[in-house]
Design a protein that fits this description.
314 residues; alpha+beta; Jelly Rolls; 5-stranded antiparallel β-sheet; 5 helices
């Protein structure tokens, strides 16, 4: 193939040969000129898909071979401490880590309008603050954090309704919510009331005597009776009696509860029937008896009564 003629930037006719021999023994390269005077020299050969050559010196600024491997020439530049429109990129990067005015140095005095380092020092000192700053709702971030910490308080703060948040939480837990060990009570801490509710809805203990006894001790500790079933098998009026005591009731003992039983009748009594919504409480202990008299105990016949008593610890 013959050489291909072209006109260069100086209006001179030159030639390019596909084998790279050209008219001077080396192929000329196209030169694209731009308004600012810079040029972009390009060349192509069998081993390189694209070359961008240095117009002033030998060597490739960028080369892409036929395998797609890119090679970039590194041009060393001194740090540009005072950037200008013609400063090289490498010089700018190196200068940024030395003494470019906009970046400044770590020793720059705190200033909201100075160098980047000065602004950082200003931000840290005047905005973030130091851990030693006095607690305040205004001022630096550290001062506000200290103020917040004092408002929250510490775990050791005493229970108080007017102190720190932790103090108020402690008061809420101790005086309002209470502890799981609080005794069941219709008043007082929330835990106490919850225990009372839980006891009211849990299965009670059942004490049973079917024609085998006319009186027994049910509990030697405080107890709550929530209901009972009793059958008076006698042909006469009798009384079922409950006593606040830790041992069997004896003749003449005054009962805490006494209910009349008609001859040969069966009764089912709930807590409400005994005058209480959540059960009748016996603060010392609980005993029962089958009596022929109402106000005091006169034991009746053992075979004349069958009874089931529902109770739980109080």
């Amino acid at each position: 193939m013959t050489s291909v003629p072209f006109i260069d930037g100086e209006s001179t006719k030159k030639y390019i040969d596909v084998n790279g021999s050209g008219t001077t023994g080396d192929p000329y390269v196209f030169i694209f000129r731009f308004p600012d005077g810079y040029s972009l020299p390009l060349s192509f050969d069998a081993s390189t898909a694209l070359k961008i050559r240095d117009g002033n010196a030998a060597g490739n600024l960028l080369a892409i071979d036929t395998n797609g491997v890119i090679t970039i020439k590194y041009v060393d530049e001194n740090a540009a401490t005072s950037p200008t429109a013609t400063s090289g990129f490498i010089g700018l990067i190196r200068g940024m880590w030395t003494s470019i005015t906009q970046l400044g140095t770590s020793s720059d005095v705190s200033n909201s309008t100075g160098s980047i380092h000065a602004k950082l020092r200003f931000f840290i000192a005047d905005t973030l603050g130091a851990t030693t700053d006095t607690a305040s709702q205004f001022g630096t971030l550290m001062a506000r954090i200290r103020s917040l910490a004092e408002a929250i308080g510490t775990q050791a703060d005493l229970a108080s309704s007017t102190g720190s948040l932790l103090a108020r939480l402690r008061q809420l837990l101790v005086d309002t919510v209470g502890a799981t060990a609080d005794a069941a009570s219709p008043t007082g801490g929330l835990m106490a009331r919850m225990r009372l509710i839980a006891q009211a809805y849990t299965s009670p203990n059942i004490f049973t005597r079917w024609g085998s006894s006319n009186g027994d001790t049910i509990s030697g500790t405080p107890a709550r009776v929530t209901g009972l079933c009793v059958w008076n098998k006698s042909t006469s009026i009798r009384y079922v009696q409950l006593f606040n005591r830790t041992s069997n009731a004896t003749a003449g003992t005054v009962p805490m509860f006494s209910r009349v039983l008609a001859p040969n009748e069966k009764y089912t009594l709930s807590a409400i029937d005994m005058g209480s919504v959540d059960g009748l409480v016996f603060s010392t202990g609980l005993a029962w008896a089958f009596s022929t008299s109402e106000a005091t105990l006169t034991l009746g016949n053992t075979t004349e009564v069958s009874i089931d008593i529902f109770w739980r610890s109080a």
